[in-house]
Amino acid sequence: MDQQSLEMLETSLRKTMLSTSGPDLDAALTELGWAEMLTDMPDTAVPLVFRLLGETGSHASALVDVVLHATGNTIGDTVELPLPYAGNSWVVWDRVGTAPNTTLGGLPLRREEEGYPIRVAEARLAVGWWLVGSARAMLRLACTHARDRVQFGKPIAQFQAVRHRLAETLVAIEGAEATLTLPGSENPDLTALLAKAAAGKAALTAARNCQQVLGGIGFTEEHELHVHVKRALVLDGLLGSARELTRKAGAGLRARGSAPRLVSL
User: Acyl-CoA dehydrogenase/oxidase C-terminal domain spans which residues (predicted)?
Assistant: First the structure.
């Protein structure tokens, strides 16, 4: 796909996600050829779709399709796959809407008593992009507020403390995105684990700093920030939290006694 076609696709996806969410967005993605994109160009489709889900605050069951595709199953199948969640627990994405009151952070996730091992490397990269998109949305809201909010006769964007928080957030987001876009690795599972951890940390950093920049208004339901904060907290826990994955990676490195090459420079 050339650059012009990619830009047109992004524009169409963004417009769709801003106007619909949930099962309706699932149907819209199907019409836009999501299954074909995931099959034919996953390295382009996954970052684009999941980053836009984060930026727009919408949600769709595309994550289930990523897991199905990675495990050789049919994209779009309504089979319920238990997904690992923080604290050694499990959740299931209810893509058919049979349990309307079981949500986490606005996502149709319900708790499960137990699960079974599944391949999650590709799904971790997808959630990582979702987290990066959410973090960028929070940063955008904080930057807009910092430019518009006037204190002591000038915008608070001119205050050093505010600039430091926004800069720290941007650095965390850019670092996470760089990790998500690493080229072919000798250990793709470890790379995906670290990328998800970096994205989770970036989103939590964005939530903390942007909440401080926005001040009291950031705590209200009238402001858009709370949607992204709740979403970031849930997505960080999905498929392993940043803290858990970092510890898991460290334990693996200690047991191995050496660090594998993640990318050839």
Answer: 121-240
